[in-house]
Design a protein that fits this description.
It is a single chain. By secondary structure, this protein is an alpha/beta fold. It is built from 13 helices and twelve strands. Strands 1-7-6-5-4-2-3 form a seven-stranded mixed β-sheet, sandwiched between helices. Strands 10-11-12 form a three-stranded antiparallel β-sheet. It has a two-stranded antiparallel ribbon with strand order 8-9. The mean pLDDT is 97.
């Protein structure tokens, strides 16, 4: 068996090579490399796909969160609630803009922040919440958290960098951010991101901030940054967006395969199967402190795996806080993601399951 990677972007490209090559070729012929036709076309297509009326392409997913927070113009000293178990980007942006990240625990089963954990972390100084739909699974408390933010008159930012496509026809007045990092369900061939919302005035502000605060060239109405979705990346994303639902469905099918094969193993806990899960990652929990041993065993069998994430954000040196959030800490010690990309074959899936079953017999 050849080595099995976490993602196989070369194989994905080969499946749609004529479409991709044509889209890139059209960009080269137009030579509109910055804010070109493909950017406007992709933003329109993504708007139609998600239901958001406004889509603003930007440089990457972290910039998308920053643009959303900059547009909110929160009072100095504001606190922003972020999940303790997630990638660093939400906390990073909060701290970079001079606000204070407040860490909330997550649900032990689905990895996502909960209304209960938000309420436990909430104080009058909290002016925003960043809710991450992690690993491709919609936060089960999304609607009640949205209602909580409305009641408290605070901003809700939804980071769906790992969950694009799990929801359609979204009418909430929160701000959604996403990433097009190559390994995402909708990935570019480089960096890229977007901010999505339903408020036209807010969208115009975000567009200005993303372009040096300009209302027109050389006229700067506010402090901004330079964060643009590259035209060629937009052209590639426009092609791949047409395949996104199929990619997500393939991920669901692979997750179902894992469930059928591995559900009886007592040594691991599987992620839930649901219509609200598109499996950016298939993340298992390995019991009894055996996570690293399983990862090493799979590596010996030429199977890639990833630990997302080895430390809660509040235990990282740059964000150190004296907290005890038990679910986040348990997940950091037990979680392991295994390959679930669309192009993986049933033969490869079966081999992975064989190896996990073999490992579980040894403990």
């Amino acid at each position: 068996m050849d080595a099995i990677p976490m993602v196989d972007l070369k194989n994905q490209y080969l499946h749609i090579q004529p479409e991709i090559d044509n889209a890139i070729g059209q960009c080269l012929l137009r030579a509109d490399y910055i804010q070109g036709e493909s950017v406007r076309d992709f933003e329109s297509r993504l708007s139609d796909y998600t239901g958001f009326r406004q889509v603003i392409g930007c440089g990457n997913g972290t910039d998308a969160i920053q643009l959303a927070l900059m547009a909110a113009n929160l009072p100095k000293g504001s606190k922003v609630i972020v999940p303790a178990f997630t990638y660093i980007a939400p906390a990073e942006v909060v701290a970079f803009l001079g606000y204070e990240p407040v860490f909330a625990d997550v649900d032990a089963k689905d990895f996502n922040i909960t209304l209960q954990s938000i309420q436990a972390a909430f104080t009058a100084d909290v002016k925003a919440i960043i809710m991450v739909h992690l690993f491709g699974q919609l936060c089960k408390d999304t609607e009640v958290i949205y209602d909580f933010c409305l009641d408290k008159n605070i901003l809700l930012i939804e980071d769906n960098a790992q969950s694009l496509g799990v929801e359609k026809n979204i009418f909430r007045n929160s701000i959604t951010t996403t990433s097009f990092f190559p390994t995402k369900n909708l990935g570019a061939f480089g960096d890229g991101g977007a901010v999505l919302c339903n408020d036209e005035t807010l969208a115009e502000t975000i567009r200005k901030i993303a372009s040096h605060g300009q209302s027109q060239k050389y006229i700067h109405d506010m402090v901004g940054i330079n964060s643009r979705l590259d035209t060629m990346q937009a052209a590639i994303l426009g092609v791949k967006l047409k395949h996104l639902d199929a990619y997500n469905q393939q991920r669901r099918q692979h997750a179902s395969f894992y469930h059928k094969r591995l559900k009886s193993l007592e040594a691991i806990e599987l992620p839930e199967l649901s219509d609200n899960h598109i499996f950016h990652q298939f993340t298992i929990k390995v019991k009894d402190g055996k996570r690293d041993q399983l990862a090493g065993y799979l590596s010996d069998k030429k199977i890639a795996s990833v630990v997302n994430y080895p430390l809660p954000v509040y235990q990282q040196g740059a964000y150190k806080q004296d907290l005890n959030l038990p679910n986040a800490e348990r997940l950091c010690a037990s979680s392991l993601s295994i390959p679930v990309y669309p192009e993986i074959s049933e033969t490869q899936l079966s081999y992975i399951c064989d190896c996990i079953e073999e490992f579980c017999k040894t403990i």
